[in-house]
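User: My advisor, Dr. K., asked me to get a structural model of this assembly before our group meeting. I'm new to this, so sorry if the format is off. These are the inputs:
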Amino acid sequence: MSETTISLKKNFPNFSNDLIEEIEAHCSFQTFKSGDIVMRTGQYIKNTILILKGQLKIYREGDDGEEFLLYYLEPGQACAISLICSSKNQTSQITAKVVEDVEAVTIPLTLMDKWMMNHRSWYEFVIYTYRTRFEEVLEVVDNIAFRAMDERLEFYLKRHAKACGCKEINLSHQEIALELNTSREVISRLLKKMEQRGLVRLHRNQIELMI
Amino acid sequence: MSETTISLKKNFPNFSNDLIEEIEAHCSFQTFKSGDIVMRTGQYIKNTILILKGQLKIYREGDDGEEFLLYYLEPGQACAISLICSSKNQTSQITAKVVEDVEAVTIPLTLMDKWMMNHRSWYEFVIYTYRTRFEEVLEVVDNIAFRAMDERLEFYLKRHAKACGCKEINLSHQEIALELNTSREVISRLLKKMEQRGLVRLHRNQIELMI
DNA sequence: TAGTCCATGTGACAAATGTTACTGTAGCTA
DNA sequence: TAGCTACAGTAACATTTGTCACATGGACTA
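Assistant: The format is fine. Below is the predicted structure of the whole assembly, which you can bring to the meeting.
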């Protein structure tokens, strides 16, 4: 059994053996470096990727190049947007940037469509992915629609800590500001208040979550 | 041919005859009155509805009962959220309220799952619906993430005019404020500015779009 | 006609957020 | 060590949005 197969089986335990064999036979293994843009708003979608290792962030771009974080992609997941795009030439509505070096399997569109009918486990994966991503985006809507920046920041920090599995968040205030579409000064200000409330401890290039 | 069949064929022209026959055989026709809540956040989803007539609005509820408009549903459409929910007991993440009296066909969950495999035209409809709704929600994210209230109001008015197919929008400032999650005074203020710029004419309970 | 809603207009102020400008400081390296 | 750069802190101010208070005026009804 190849290493890719092992990794596929580990990260996508619900895939049937048939499906994994097909992936092996027809799809290519690829790696991406931190900072790489895997998919960009407006580009035609030609394939989707299954993440085996690393982390991607999916964000929406504003007219003036602002970024707005939607969610992270991790091993065992796939880009929802590219999973469902009719055979027509569909362009991407989002940008995907590598946060941590990524190992992934690339799957051409044509195969995906076929698999939906032939592989129950693929079908279920797609449905599940789509539903959970939709919910995640709805939660993002909640945050920006109903909550002020201080709450959003808190939510962001918690999500980040959860994603990396630790309480130390290695991000500059500038980076956070970018993802929440605000300015560094605002983030600094709010973080200071959070520190006064005992919710975080601030260090250079690191925020220690106390909750 | 029954009236429902005719209406189904007209509003869902891509459905195969087989599919329409199945719908006829197993699904029930229902009507809802303006103001009815068809689906509420937290409720279990037991079925989906295909709209034949009227208009629904789909919105997200805040912790304190605030509303936030996501999109409208019109004849020929279906509620995306309820289209994809695994057989498990899934609760709704949104609320659907009738804007204009609705005629619809109700489809039980169990059938939907079967049809995905057996009816290509249903499968394509589901995929298409999901994709377009996802995009619509992403556009909503853009609006609240990147744009100020004046732009959002303008976008809202245009979308509303498009949905009803006319330039006269019969809404009070209060109703608009609710859907954009702001206050009436803010809407009044911004509308006045828009009137000064010649973009609208304001009347009692009506806003005339000039663009 | 007087009274009562309801929708709207508007001024004054409060609070949140965005912007500008400047300071300090840690870490790197020439 | 001096100089550079990136990061962080913060004061001061502008702008946007939210809130309160109150006025106006149309539509309807007792």
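One thing worth pointing out at the meeting: The first strand of chain A starts at residue 28 and ends at 32.

User: Perfect, thanks a lot.
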